[in-house]
Amino acid sequence: MAKPKLLFKTRLLKGLLVAVALIPKPLAWRLSSLGARLMLKAQARSACTTDENLRLAQPHLTDAERQQLTVDSLSHTLFMAFELAKVWTWPWSRLAQLIDIKPASRALLDDVINQASGVVFLAPHIGNWELLGFYLQQKTPLTVLYQPGPSEAVNQLMLDRRELHGTKILPTNRQGVMGLFKSLKQGGSTGVLPDQVPEKAGGEFAPFFGVQAFTMTLIYNLIQRSGCRVVIAACLRTDKGFEIVIREPVAEIYADDVAQSLSGLNQSIEQLVLSAPEQYQWEYKRYRRLLPGEARRYVKKKT
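Predicted structure:
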């Protein structure tokens, strides 16, 4: 049972989110775009990180193109805050009206859910991955790993919403990972954010947009030890709302060789990102772990 102080903070947060959810979408987008432009002008940390990531991962862009994509990416990230106000407070029946899924994605989703083996939904930081999780919860029970953030109130609200539809939450430790293996071997499903930088013991370097990035080996281990199936999943923004996208990954992700598998994982993410690059969270420090001899990254330049 939650402590009285935590319960009060959680209710207060929910009340604030209910109020934010009332802001019309056009106004929310204008505010997000304005915030993004101000961040770029002020050379905020997120803007600088986005610019550096794009210089590394998209070197073919002109200065003007990179600046525009920086603004677009930051706008989408800020806009997600307005979306989460709805995702964390609206009933599913209301959220479902905003979501569409094309026949090819629906057929693939039905196929993986109805098979005997477990399935891993790879959900990179693109679009609204929180709403994606809620959608998948309606289709199949999920078991996921969860690392609490610094805010107890946010954690409590997030867990309450995720568990509302039957998602099983496991800690991000050895016991949690073993629980994930067990679930997949029994034909269960899980969702993983595959473009997070793992701890040193949980990853190896693999190319991501042509740059060596420290990449989690969790997916490789899940495949090798459980025989699970993997699909790429995303909830992308559209003019009318959202579209659920389900895709097969690059075949190399199933390779026995870990380097080949990690390369296939990152290639699968790349293909999804290139379909909507403005919706990708480029401000995440994806390349912060370095190979020996590489110069330090994400150092804010003095002005």
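Summary: The chain has a mean pLDDT of 92.
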